[in-house]
């Protein structure tokens, strides 16, 4: 697997801090933008720790446990999308949601995309347009509502629009490490949302779990859809696909599926809404 190296350190690290207002939307008490300081990145990592390790029982490294932050080397080269509830504060104290954004230059810095540990992502690397890997999505427990999620999506739409992203991808999770508990939902995804062959990413053979656990007529589709995690439902509503095969992630105590979303619907839906709002304000 090969990722072309970027031409300069500036390209690898993305826009300078002064240009990070490419994503900035304020709606009522909420704001979505990219992290601007090390303190804000630390706060996003602390939020991730609370959600993944304390709430979802993932297994932190000793260093993470001491610092009570979720972090790895990708945090140094990616962009961190934040949602802030400005009633709580305009800086780190206001962060209630986050997403991690990894473009080709950041992946080149690391030598691979994050999800390549679980999936053969060569079809994403070879994709002719710009691609974006998203991950580490989480929202504070007391802020899990439609408003917060919509702000995250508006931020993603603006980011994708600015960088002309054609496809975004990443892993989304079912809770727990027993895929059989999710047999109906995974079989439904396989039968109805499997990506077309030209962009169908497959789990690495050593970790491959067959998602087709039940025959097409062996489950109730409505019940299967109801058992999908909210984030996966959101991706599907935007025309998302899944890759072939699930993967058990024992560190995070999850069973992962690969999600692929062509960003046309994302940018069209949210940019239209954003532009309409701008016109109304004038």
Relevant terms:
single chain, 282 residues, alpha+beta, 10 helices, 11 strands, disordered C terminus
For the biggest sheet, the summary is:
9 strands, mixed
Low-pLDDT ranges: 4-18, 274-282
Number of helices: 10
Head-to-tail CA distance between termini? 49 Å
> What's the CATH architecture name?
3-Layer(aba) Sandwich
Tell me the number of strands. Answer: 11
C-alpha Rg (nearest Å): 18 Å
| Relative strand content | 15-25%
Mean pLDDT: 89
CATH topology: Aminopeptidase
CATH class call:
Alpha Beta
> What would you give as the CATH superfamily?
Gcn5-related N-acetyltransferase (GNAT)
Summarize the structure.
With 282 residues, this protein is α+β, with helices and mostly antiparallel strands. The chain has ten helices and eleven strands. It has helices spanning 9-13, 38-55, 62-67, 104-110, 122-125, 146-162, 183-193, 221-226, 230-237, 264-281; strands at 24-27, 30-34, 79-85, 95-103, 119-120, 130-139, 165-175, 202-203, 241-242, 247-249, 254-262.
Notes on the structure:
- It is a single chain.
- The radius of gyration is 18 Å and the shape is globular.
- It is α+β, with helices and mostly antiparallel strands.
- β10 (247-249) and β11 (254-262) form a beta hairpin.
- Strands 1, 2, 3, 4, 6, 7, 9, 10 and 11 form a 9-stranded mixed sheet that branches. Strands 5-8 form a two-stranded antiparallel ribbon.
- 40% of the residues are buried.
- The protein has one domain (9-281): Gcn5-related N-acetyltransferase (GNAT) (Aminopeptidase).
- Mean pLDDT is 89; it is low at 4-18 and 274-282.
- The protein has helices at residues 9-13, 38-55, 62-67, 104-110, 122-125, 146-162, 183-193, 221-226, 230-237, 264-281; strands at 24-27, 30-34, 79-85, 95-103, 119-120, 130-139, 165-175, 202-203, 241-242, 247-249, 254-262.
- α6 (146-162) packs across α10 (264-281).
- Helix content is 35%, strand content 23%.
- The chain has 10 helices and 11 strands.
């Amino acid at each position: 697997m090969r990722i072309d190296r970027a031409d300069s350190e500036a390209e690898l690290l993305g826009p300078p801090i002064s240009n990070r207002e490419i994503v900035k939307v304020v709606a009522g008490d909420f704001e979505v933008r990219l992290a601007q300081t090390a303190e804000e990145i630390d706060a996003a990592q602390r939020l991730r720790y609370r959600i993944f390790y304390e709430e979802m029982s993932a297994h932190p490294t000793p260093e993470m446990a001491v610092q009570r932050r979720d972090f790895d080397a990708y945090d140094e080269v990616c962009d961190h999308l934040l949602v802030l509830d400005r009633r709580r504060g305009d800086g780190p104290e206001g962060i209630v949601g986050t997403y991690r954004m990894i473009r080709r230059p950041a992946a080149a810095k690391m030598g691979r995309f994050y999800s390549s540990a679980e999936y053969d992502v060569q079809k994403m690397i070879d994709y002719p347009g710009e691609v974006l890997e998203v991950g580490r999505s989480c929202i504070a427990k007391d802020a899990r509502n439609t408003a917060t999620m919509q702000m995250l999506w508006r931020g993603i739409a603006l980011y994708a629009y600015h960088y002309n992203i054609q496809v975004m991808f990443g892993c989304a999770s079912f809770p727990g490490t027993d895929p059989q508990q999710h047999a109906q939902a995974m079989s439904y995804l396989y039968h109805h949302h499997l990506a077309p062959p030209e962009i169908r990413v497959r789990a690495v053979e050593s970790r491959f779990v067959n998602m087709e656990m039940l025959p097409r007529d062996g489950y109730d589709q409505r019940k299967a859809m109801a058992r999908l995690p909210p984030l996966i439902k959101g991706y599907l509503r935007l025309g998302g696909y899944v890759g072939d095969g699930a993967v058990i992630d024992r560190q995070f105590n999850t069973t992962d599926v690969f999600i692929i979303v062509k960003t046309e619907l994302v940018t069209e839906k949210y940019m239209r809404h954003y532009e309409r709002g701008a016109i109304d304000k004038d």
